[in-house]
Amino acid sequence: MELSDEIRINAPLQTVYAALNDIEVLKQCIPGCEELTEVGEDQLEAKVVLKIGPVKAKFGGEVTLDREGAPHAFSLAGQGNGGAAGFAKGGADVVLEEDGEATILRYTAKADVGGKIAQLGSRLIQSTAKKLSGKFFQSFAEVVEAA
Protein backbone atom coordinates (compact mmCIF):
# COMPACT_ATOMS: atom_id res chain seq x y z
CA MET A 1 0.00 0.00 0.00
CA GLU A 2 1.29 3.46 -0.87
CA LEU A 3 0.05 6.89 0.20
CA SER A 4 1.21 10.32 -0.84
CA ASP A 5 -0.04 13.81 -0.17
CA GLU A 6 1.10 17.34 0.57
CA ILE A 7 0.10 19.97 3.07
CA ARG A 8 0.90 23.68 3.35
CA ILE A 9 1.98 24.74 6.82
CA ASN A 10 2.06 28.43 7.70
CA ALA A 11 5.49 28.36 9.32
CA PRO A 12 9.11 28.64 8.11
CA LEU A 13 10.88 25.48 6.93
CA GLN A 14 13.28 25.39 9.93
CA THR A 15 10.31 25.54 12.34
CA VAL A 16 8.53 22.70 10.54
CA TYR A 17 11.70 20.59 10.45
CA ALA A 18 12.34 21.19 14.17
CA ALA A 19 8.75 20.15 14.98
CA LEU A 20 9.12 16.94 12.95
CA ASN A 21 12.04 16.09 15.23
CA ASP A 22 10.29 17.06 18.48
CA ILE A 23 9.12 13.98 20.40
CA GLU A 24 6.41 15.90 22.28
CA VAL A 25 4.95 17.38 19.08
CA LEU A 26 4.93 13.98 17.38
CA LYS A 27 3.35 12.26 20.39
CA GLN A 28 0.60 14.87 20.42
CA CYS A 29 -0.11 14.44 16.68
CA ILE A 30 0.16 10.67 16.10
CA PRO A 31 -3.38 9.21 16.33
CA GLY A 32 -3.65 6.74 19.23
CA CYS A 33 -0.11 7.39 20.46
CA GLU A 34 0.29 6.39 24.11
CA GLU A 35 4.07 6.50 24.31
CA LEU A 36 6.92 7.82 22.18
CA THR A 37 10.46 7.57 23.49
CA GLU A 38 13.87 8.29 22.06
CA VAL A 39 16.01 5.16 22.55
CA GLY A 40 19.00 6.18 20.43
CA GLU A 41 20.21 9.05 18.27
CA ASP A 42 17.94 8.17 15.35
CA GLN A 43 15.78 5.53 17.06
CA LEU A 44 12.31 5.96 18.54
CA GLU A 45 10.07 3.47 20.32
CA ALA A 46 6.30 3.87 20.17
CA LYS A 47 3.13 2.40 21.64
CA VAL A 48 0.02 3.17 19.61
CA VAL A 49 -3.58 1.97 19.92
CA LEU A 50 -5.42 1.72 16.59
CA LYS A 51 -8.86 0.59 15.52
CA ILE A 52 -9.10 -0.71 11.97
CA GLY A 53 -12.65 -1.79 11.22
CA PRO A 54 -13.65 -4.25 13.97
CA VAL A 55 -10.05 -4.87 15.09
CA LYS A 56 -8.58 -2.77 17.88
CA ALA A 57 -4.96 -3.41 18.71
CA LYS A 58 -2.08 -1.97 20.68
CA PHE A 59 1.06 -1.81 18.58
CA GLY A 60 4.54 -1.60 19.99
CA GLY A 61 7.30 -0.78 17.58
CA GLU A 62 10.47 0.95 16.57
CA VAL A 63 11.09 3.80 14.14
CA THR A 64 14.45 4.64 12.58
CA LEU A 65 15.06 8.14 11.23
CA ASP A 66 17.36 8.99 8.33
CA ARG A 67 18.16 12.71 8.41
CA GLU A 68 20.73 12.64 5.58
CA GLY A 69 18.87 15.21 3.43
CA ALA A 70 17.95 17.49 6.35
CA PRO A 71 16.39 19.99 6.64
CA HIS A 72 14.80 19.68 3.18
CA ALA A 73 14.23 15.93 3.20
CA PHE A 74 14.39 12.94 5.46
CA SER A 75 12.93 9.48 5.71
CA LEU A 76 11.83 7.07 8.37
CA ALA A 77 11.23 3.35 8.56
CA GLY A 78 9.51 1.33 11.21
CA GLN A 79 7.74 -1.80 12.23
CA GLY A 80 5.21 -2.61 14.87
CA ASN A 81 3.65 -5.70 16.37
CA GLY A 82 0.02 -5.79 17.44
CA GLY A 83 0.08 -9.28 18.95
CA ALA A 84 -2.85 -11.41 17.72
CA ALA A 85 -4.03 -8.52 15.51
CA GLY A 86 -0.92 -8.77 13.35
CA PHE A 87 1.96 -6.56 12.36
CA ALA A 88 2.69 -3.49 10.31
CA LYS A 89 5.91 -2.27 8.73
CA GLY A 90 6.72 0.54 6.40
CA GLY A 91 8.35 3.87 5.88
CA ALA A 92 7.93 7.39 4.58
CA ASP A 93 9.92 9.94 2.66
CA VAL A 94 9.26 13.57 3.59
CA VAL A 95 10.26 16.59 1.52
CA LEU A 96 10.03 20.18 2.82
CA GLU A 97 9.93 23.10 0.40
CA GLU A 98 9.89 26.80 1.24
CA ASP A 99 6.85 28.68 -0.07
CA GLY A 100 7.33 32.30 1.00
CA GLU A 101 6.74 32.40 4.75
CA ALA A 102 5.13 28.93 4.65
CA THR A 103 6.39 25.40 4.03
CA ILE A 104 5.02 22.74 1.71
CA LEU A 105 5.38 19.27 3.26
CA ARG A 106 5.15 16.37 0.79
CA TYR A 107 5.23 12.76 1.84
CA THR A 108 5.16 9.33 0.26
CA ALA A 109 4.53 6.42 2.59
CA LYS A 110 4.56 2.68 2.05
CA ALA A 111 3.19 0.08 4.44
CA ASP A 112 2.66 -3.66 4.63
CA VAL A 113 0.41 -5.40 7.12
CA GLY A 114 0.00 -9.02 8.09
CA GLY A 115 -2.04 -11.19 10.41
CA LYS A 116 -5.67 -10.56 11.34
CA ILE A 117 -5.46 -6.96 10.10
CA ALA A 118 -4.50 -8.08 6.59
CA GLN A 119 -7.67 -10.19 6.44
CA LEU A 120 -9.81 -7.03 6.70
CA GLY A 121 -9.18 -6.22 3.06
CA SER A 122 -7.00 -3.70 1.33
CA ARG A 123 -9.79 -1.15 0.75
CA LEU A 124 -10.53 -0.82 4.50
CA ILE A 125 -6.83 -0.75 5.38
CA GLN A 126 -6.09 1.86 2.69
CA SER A 127 -8.97 4.15 3.76
CA THR A 128 -7.99 3.84 7.45
CA ALA A 129 -4.34 4.60 6.64
CA LYS A 130 -5.38 7.64 4.60
CA LYS A 131 -7.63 8.87 7.42
CA LEU A 132 -4.89 8.39 10.05
CA SER A 133 -2.22 10.15 7.98
CA GLY A 134 -4.66 12.99 7.27
CA LYS A 135 -5.36 13.33 11.01
CA PHE A 136 -1.66 13.35 11.82
CA PHE A 137 -0.75 16.06 9.30
CA GLN A 138 -3.77 18.22 10.15
CA SER A 139 -2.88 18.04 13.87
CA PHE A 140 0.77 18.63 13.06
CA ALA A 141 -0.01 21.73 11.00
CA GLU A 142 -2.26 23.10 13.78
CA VAL A 143 0.39 22.54 16.48
CA VAL A 144 3.19 24.09 14.40
CA GLU A 145 1.10 27.09 13.32
CA ALA A 146 -0.04 27.70 16.92
CA ALA A 147 3.59 27.80 18.08
Automatic annotation (TrEMBL):
SUPFAM superfamilies: Bet v1-like. Transmembrane segments: none annotated. Signal peptide: none annotated. It comes from the Bacteria. Pfam families: COXG. InterPro entries: CO_DH_gsu, START-like_dom_sf. This is Carbon monoxide dehydrogenase subunit G (CoxG).
